[in-house]
Design brief:
With 258 residues, this protein is of the alpha/beta class. The protein has 2 domains: 141 residues, Periplasmic binding protein-like II (D-Maltodextrin-Binding Protein, domain 2, 3-Layer(aba) Sandwich), CATH 3.40.190; 84 residues, Periplasmic binding protein-like II (D-Maltodextrin-Binding Protein, domain 2, 3-Layer(aba) Sandwich). It is built from 10 helices and 12 strands. Strands 1, 2, 3, 4, 5, 11 and 12 form a 7-stranded mixed beta sheet that branches. It has a 5-stranded mixed beta sheet with strand order 8-7-9-6-10. α4 crosses α6 and α4 packs across α10. It is globular, with a radius of gyration of 18 Å. The chain starts with 11 loop residues before the first strand and ends in a 14-residue tail after the last helix.
Length: 258
């Protein structure tokens, strides 16, 4: 029998990207790491109780509760969510999207739509004149490191800030209604995320030595890990633009926060 002060067994999922480390580093239990789309499917199927997944999943299926106070967000350039292209943005007629994240795809649709650009979105293809490519997470980081200098880069976090003046929220902890001991688990996840984001040195020290210098820049200069009023305002604006640009049929109800 579990001790009274222990959390009951809970199935936790987390995106397996570098940007998630400050929200999961030091968690004492097991965690299933996967890409965002797979985690969303597992959460919907009841294979997970709570998962750090694409924020758009809440807008699309607002049956979950959000762990308040923590998120993966940016307030300007995010560095790891990018559109690589040749020529002018206005000349794009096709974009190869990353199927792993509905959030980034819909963010790009909104940003381009606000500029009057409505390309066709494709599942595969090479970058060429008139066709760009959306990359996210570790894939975007590797692309920038290895071949990024050959292309023009739109940083979606930077473009969102330019267009709206608000932070953008990429990922949230979403919890199923039937998750055991929901309030206590939300408190534990929020406390861990806030402690790690306030004290990034141990998180950075846990990374491979070759990545620590980059993590200093990425965690401190590019990412935010709060879900405060400014982030919520940005999230609401994202929902409105998704409806306007037909990424959502209608606005979700008010946020369900834990």
């Amino acid at each position: 029998m579990s001790a009274p002060d222990e959390l009951p067994p809970v199935r936790i999922g987390c995106v397996g990207y570098l940007n998630a480390h400050p929200l999961i580093h030091g968690w004492p239990g097991g965690v299933r790491f996967d890409h965002p789309a797979a985690l969303c499917q597992q959460l919907a199927a009841g294979e997970l109780d709570v998962a750090l997944v694409s924020s758009f999943e809440y807008l699309r299926h607002p049956i979950y509760s959000i762990v308040d106070g923590v998120a993966i967000a940016s307030n300007g350039p995010v560095y790891s969510v990018i559109l690589a292209h040749l020529g002018e943005i206005e000349a794009l007629h096709e974009v190869v999207t990353d199927p792993a994240s509905a959030t980034s795809t819909n963010l790009l649709r909104c940003l381009l739509g606000e500029r009057g650009v409505t390309p066709q979105f494709l599942p595969a293809g090479e970058i060429e004149p008139g066709r760009g490519r959306l990359l996210i997470g570790d894939q975007a980081l590797g692309f920038r490191r290895e071949t990024g200098a050959r292309y023009r880069i739109m940083d979606l976090g930077e473009e969102w800030k330019r267009q709206t003046g608000l932070p953008f929220v990429y990922a949230l902890w979403l919890m199923r209604p039937d998750c055991p001991d929901r309030l206590r688990l939300a408190t534990e996840l929020r406390s861990l995320g806030k402690t790690n984001s306030d004290h990034l040195d141990p998180v950075i020290a846990a990374q491979p030595e070759s990545q620590r210098r980059f993590c200093e820049f990425y965690f401190r200069e590019c990412l935010r890990f709060a879900f405060g009023e400014a982030e919520k305002q940005g999230f609401r604006r994202f929902a409105e633009l998704c409806v306007h640009h037909r990424g959502l049929p209608n606005l979700p109800p008010p946020l369900e926060l834990l």
